[in-house]
């Protein structure tokens, strides 16, 4: 089962951009969403982020992320509407101001989470690691740690899926619609997942040491990751978005 942050093949401009430039652009979209106050400003940043995903030939994962975070956004919207009433009362505890704040929180949640996850699916983990070492001069052990975390997320998700499938073959009803029962059935699976994770982490650490982990530096990569004019244009576009949000 694929993960939403697995690399998506493509030939778009963002696929060819430097991983550091893409990471900075995602951070700029995050800042723009955080700085936006009104619903329309947050919605504009969110729509722009979705358009970036569509243009970069990554529409399927982009909309999958939007749908996933929409559930969390809906929960936050309901909570915000109930705990922070303001303005004209519509029905019971629901007010106009509470609804506006609730929608704002929901949209901002999606707009804050979407850029980074969307950009991660447009770059290979090894490219990101090597670019951080060469361009940003991040020490290789730290860059390797970041890359390992990103690599293990889909691995853990796949491992969890395999464990659940094995339990379903034994008659465990994971397809139940009761969320509390599903949580109760899932909790015992954490232990075998942790055991498997520790084994994989230990094997990866041994393999890294045998390949000269402590001897690697920026010159060890086969590919160079210098920033091109298009990368600076991408980062400048992100700055322009922040300026527009702050001004208007």
From TrEMBL:
Main location: membrane
Pfam families the UniProt entry points to: CbiQ
Keyword Membrane: yes
Gene Ontology, cellular component aspect: plasma membrane
InterPro entries: ABC/ECF_trnsptr_transmembrane
Top-rank lineage group of the source organism: Bacteria
Keywords per UniProt: Membrane, Transmembrane, Transmembrane helix
Transmembrane segments: 23-53, 65-83, 103-122, 225-247
Topology term for the membrane: Multi-pass membrane protein
Entry's localization field: Membrane
PANTHER family: PROTEIN ABCI12, CHLOROPLASTIC
Protein name: Cobalt transport protein
Organism the protein comes from: Lancefieldella parvula (strain ATCC 33793 / DSM 20469 / CCUG 32760 / JCM 10300 / KCTC 3663 / VPI 0546 / 1246)
């Amino acid at each position: 089962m694929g993960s939403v942050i697995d690399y998506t093949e493509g030939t778009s401009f963002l696929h060819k951009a430097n991983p550091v430039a893409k990471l900075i652009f995602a951070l700029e979209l995050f800042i723009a969403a955080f700085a936006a106050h009104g619903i329309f400003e947050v919605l504009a940043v969110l729509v722009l982020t979705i358009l970036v995903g569509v243009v970069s030939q990554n529409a399927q994962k982009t909309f999958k992320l939007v749908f996933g975070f929409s559930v969390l956004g809906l929960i936050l919207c309901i909570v915000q509407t109930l705990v922070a009433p303001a303005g004209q009362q519509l029905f019971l505890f629901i007010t106009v101001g509470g609804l506006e704040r609730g929608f704002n929180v929901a949209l901002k949640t999606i707009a804050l989470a979407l850029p980074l996850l969307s950009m991660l699916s447009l770059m290979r983990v090894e490219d990101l690691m090597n670019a951080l070492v060469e361009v940003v001069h991040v020490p290789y052990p730290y860059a390797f740690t970041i890359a390992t975390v990103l690599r293990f997320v889909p691995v853990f998700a796949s491992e969890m899926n395999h464990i659940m499938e094995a339990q379903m073959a034994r008659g465990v009803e994971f397809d139940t619609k009761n969320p509390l029962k599903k949580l109760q059935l899932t909790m015992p699976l954490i232990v075998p997942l942790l055991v498997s994770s520790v084994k994989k982490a230990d094997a990866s650490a041994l393999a890294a040491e045998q390949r000269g982990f402590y001897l690697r530096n920026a010159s060890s990569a086969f590919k160079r990751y210098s920033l091109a004019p298009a990368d600076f244009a991408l980062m400048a576009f992100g700055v322009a978005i922040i300026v527009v949000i702050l001004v208007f």
